[in-house]
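I would like you to sit down with the pair of lines that follows and say whether tokens and residues agree.
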Amino acid sequence: MPDLPVLIAGDVHGDLERLFAGLKPYPPDRWRTVFLGDLVDGGAFGVGALRYARDRPNSEVILGNHEVMMLWALRDRARLPYWLGIGGQLHDLQELARDEPLEHWLRHRPALLKLEDGTLVQHADTDHYARLADLDDAHADIVKTVNQEAQRLLNNEREDVLWDVTSPGGVFRAGRSRLDAWLRETSSKRLVHGHVPHNQSKPLVYQEGRALNFDGGLSRFYGSRYRRRAPPSASVGPLPPLVD
């Protein structure tokens, strides 16, 4: 991938219009765009958001818990009522079922991404990802191991395990020690995530800059309709330089 500045896009939840508004100042040929997952569920254009993120030049997509549940519902229709209850759109599921290349692509998205500056990117602000790796193996590449195990689970009818890993949130806001431990385990310098909406007008920086939350509640169709909507810039914006 070209040596470009990094642009982060938080949880879209099917709202392509607001996503496009957030991305408008950032031409794809000038930015490396990282989508934090949860592009689906809520608004009507979840599969459209997946296709857009897949096809946008210089872009990468992290697996969110809503993508996990959507794939689970696609394989096991007994999960359909639960998925619909968390914002799933039936037409999206039908569209994904007809698009085998998109489904295959989605099943092979990484759970973690390590950037060149030492930034760890993941969907949820939790250390539950460690359950997918052997932390006692001093020689293991934790990021690589977690991604390999996530793909194995998705392709062997164990979406339940991955759902339990990617669904918890708020862990690192509640405890600096757990954030620091997770960063040490993954040899990372800071964390970027989405998953838990914040109420700021720009991405939330916390724990003295060691963590950044880019879920600014972008979608108008997911979550409380009475919640005051932050501007798209709360969810979509450049990754600040890392300060040691």
In short: The first strand starts at residue 6 and ends at 9. The chain has a mean pLDDT of 95. Residues 42 and 87 are 4 Å apart (CA to CA).
